[in-house]
Design goal:
Blueprint (H helix, E strand, L loop, with lengths): L30 E8 L2 E5 L16 E7 L4 H10 L4 H8 L6 E4 L4 E9 L7 E9 L3 E6 L7 H8 L10 H36 L5 H30 L8 H67 L14 H22 L4
Parallel strand pairs: 3-7
Antiparallel strand pairs: 1-2, 1-3, 4-5, 5-6, 6-7
Helix pairs in contact: 4-5, 4-6, 5-6, 6-7
């Protein structure tokens, strides 16, 4: 759990609103991209300086400003100055360990949420995305460049796309919807991993099964920490308390809220399944141990009377009639074999073997 609080100690003693990047530097250089659009067309730019963004602040078109990379504090501070973003918001943007939340600052909304970035395996990284929703603009802050929003960009470029005729609040909805829909892809891959592990446990629990179950439960815990607060965020946004969100857009926001509930329910289901798998693993180990103990017990039980006979005739008494009998040794072997065969037949009849 150290990664959830890593770097927090560096803020001790600093005044509120002090800008300090907490997290990993996932890109070498901060990049800025702009998509400015309306029903008539789309204009895409990659400004070299923050000052070029000022002309998009009060336009009649909808502007999407995307910043990739959070480690350059000066750039984040200049963007905050251009769009009148509160220092506490800038502080939260730079803190990549922040929980999802929604804050209303009057002329803009600030949303923090988490996305899952696939690294080519079934264990995606958790990335923080911050969204500023203004009257005619949306600013997104990402830790690294990845293909999460590429589909949305293609929709904006399409001439017949409905999003081109709607406002910044609908663009914000589309961003939130894209992030939440990506959760389903991640959960589907995680579900396949859980099913494979469950099949493995049913056939034969391996030595690493306990470690795999523990890793999956920890991964689910990380996901839950990232997703559970999003339920409150979408619920608050869907109530329509901000004038920046039109009533027509609220229907779509509530749909994202429903998707969020489904994601959380799926997480809870997976957690219950993993708890059952852990019980199944422990039961399987216990059954195997009982089988081994049953075999050892049967062997010990068979040899108890044989050991008794051997012990009796191993005593050093001088006058033992069977010691001088010519057929004494073979007779003892016959008796011991008959005892063993009788006991094994009795065990089989009682289905102990």
């Amino acid at each position: 759990m150290a990664k959830f609080t890593r770097g927090m100690g560096r803020k001790a003693g600093l005044p509120p609103g002090s800008l300090l990047h907490i997290g990993d530097n996932r890109v070498e250089k901060v990049t800025i991209s702009v998509m400015d659009y309306d029903a008539s067309g789309v204009r895409e730019e990659n400004p070299k300086t923050v000052g070029e963004l000022l002309r998009f602040k009060n336009t009649a078109t909808v502007t999407w400003i995307n910043i990739i990379g959070l480690h350059d504090i000066k750039i984040i501070e200049r963007i905050g100055s251009c769009f009148d973003i509160h220092p506490l918001v800038l502080e939260d943007i730079l803190d990549t360990n922040h929980r999802p939340k929604l804050e209303d600052y009057g002329h803009y909304l600030y949303i923090v949420l988490k996305s899952f970035v696939s690294q080519g395996g079934d264990n995606p990284e958790i990335e923080q995305i911050s969204i500023i929703i203004g009257e005619n603009y949306v600013i997104t802050f990402q830790e690294q460049d990845e293909a999460l929003f590429n589909t949305l960009r293609e929709r904006i470029r399409s001439e017949k796309a409905r999003i081109r005729t709607l406002g910044a609040d609908y663009l914000a909805y589309a961003l939130l919807d894209t992030v939440v829909d990506n959760y389903f892809d991640v959960l589907e891959a995680l579900g396949e991993t859980i099913e494979d592990l469950e099949d493995k446990l049913v056939i034969e629990p391996g030595r690493n099964a306990m470690q795999e179950i523990h890793n999956l439960k920890r991964r689910l815990l990380n996901f839950k920490k990232s997703l559970w607060p999003l339920r409150e965020v979408m619920g608050t946004l869907g109530r329509g308390e901000s004038p920046l969100v039109n009533k027509a857009t609220l229907l779509y926001v509530r749909d994202v809220y429903d998707h969020t509930i489904r994601v959380i329910d799926t997480l809870e289901t997976y957690r219950d399944i993993l708890s059952g798998m852990l019980d199944m693993y422990l039961s399987g180990i216990s059954i195997r141990m009982n089988q081994v103990m049953k075999v050892l017990t049967v062997i010990s039980t068979v040899f108890i009377p044989l050991t008794f006979i051997v012990g009796v005739y191993g005593m050093n008494f001088k006058y033992m009639p069977e010691l001088d009998w010519e057929w004494g040794y073979p007779a003892i072997w016959v008796v011991m074999l008959l005892i063993s065969a009788t006991m094994l037949a009795l065990f089989r009849r009682r289905k102990w073997l």
